[in-house]
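Hey,

Quick one before I head out. I ran the complex with iron/sulfur cluster overnight. Inputs first:
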Amino acid sequence: MKQPRIRLTLSVTHYIKQFKLKMDKEKKMNSTQVKEKVREAGADLVGIASLDRFKDLPAESNPLSVFPQCKSVIVVGRRILRGAFRGVEEGTNFGSTYGCFGHSYLENQFLSKTIYDVTCYLEKEGIEAVPLLGYRIKGEDKVLADGKPAANVILDYKILAQAAGLGEIGKGGFFLTPEFGHRQRFGMILVDEAFDADELKKVSLCENCDACAKGCPLKSIHAEKTISAGLKGHETDIFTIDEKICKVCKNGAFSQPVASDGVDRYAAACGRACMTALENKVSNRFENKFRKRSVWSVDINGSAAELSFVGGQAPVKN
Ligand code: SF4
Ligand code: SF4
């Protein structure tokens, strides 16, 4: 009696497999092939968000406002080298270490080149593809086309990276991935092809941690007051942050009004505290610990301040 049922299950599974293979053949390329190309172009992370995940975003940050035929968003990430943080951690070099290799070259050249090369490839395959960074570059500031939001529509890379199954927003406001924690930058490619989407990923790296809040010398992160952030229906609770203070913070923060993050906090005291807290939780690990000595800090005026407890660890005296 059991055999026919097994045969039926097998034949349905076989049919579904054959149907998927046929669909993949009919597509110009499948999601595995696209991801291979993205990695060959230098990406460390790649995920795909399908239309159902972003179609309800507000028009001011919706991929469909930029490209109404968009069916998938390919989110591309490149790691911020741990070594790029060293000069800031030591308090001895900000510009030619992090400023170049962690920030401007990484976003404007390396990541941009990866996105550009993949877009060229997709266009050769006959897929219309729109390359984008999450930059907050001002546009016309007025509605130019009926029923459309004003230019520039600015995509939220954190929401789209979550929609593409790459991770989630951590309590300190950084986008966290299981591979690198907060240490990556993202760009996006909007395509008119419906690629298979990645599953959403719950990373839960922030459990029992408030190192970013403790590591902020200016007490700008309020761990006691949280708000929810992230993709609708999959939000996480994050600490409130006083961005006005971050804008003038001299503890490794870079104020970049037009870049993807208005204030770039990755290398700031809060960001380095996060990196230190996560170094044994992420998959990209190192033989030696990042933090080797006590942490420097300055107050809001740029004068040396003292910290009693940094990044979840008591400071080490030299
Ligand atoms: S950028 Fe500066 S002020 Fe803002 S949370 Fe980080 S360390 Fe604190
Ligand atoms: S320092 Fe801890 S709590 Fe803050 S964002 Fe990083 S993992 Fe989350």
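The longest helix spans residues 95-124.

Talk tomorrow,
K.
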